[in-house]
Amino acid sequence: MIFLLGGLLLLASSALAADARLLANLRRLDPSLRLEQICDLEAMNQLSRRGFDADRAKSNVSVSPIHNGDILIANGAAFRSRGNWYHLSFVCVGTPDHLHVKSFRYMIGRMIPQSKWSSLDLWR
Q1: Does any domain span residue 89?
Q2: Which of 63, 94, 103, 113 has the most CB atoms less than 10 A away?
Q3: Burial class (CB in 10 A: 0-12, 13-18, 19+), 61
Q4: Where is the signal peptide (predicted)?
Q5: C-beta of residue 79 within 8 angstroms of C-beta of residue 47
Q6: What's the domain count of the chain?
Q7: By residue range, what is the domain housing residue 31?
Q8: Is residue 37 part of a domain?
Q9: Strands (E), the chain
């Protein structure tokens, strides 16, 4: 699995090595960006458990997410699965250090037509 985190490419060759590298890189980020990143990763994990092959999630696609302390409300999010993008909304509660997710609720929306990808800063 490949993660893009704050401009850094992380290759998850083993779960432990990836986790250690991921946490080290997360600690370097501004806390609000760190919260967005862990929530985007949690979105991919949750969606993969539901049968999607989620390889990318963005909390800021059509509407900027709302930050309220350790809570991120992303009503304009999206995720990519098998080459298609889908609308997504979620509420994510992180730990105070914004390194882990305490709770995550989401709702999957419709597929985003490819003709809209460019205007939403999405890619293939």
Answers
A1: yes
A2: 94
A3: buried
A4: 1-17
A5: yes
A6: 1
A7: 2-116
A8: yes
A9: 2-5, 8-11, 54-58, 66-68, 71-81, 84-94, 101-112
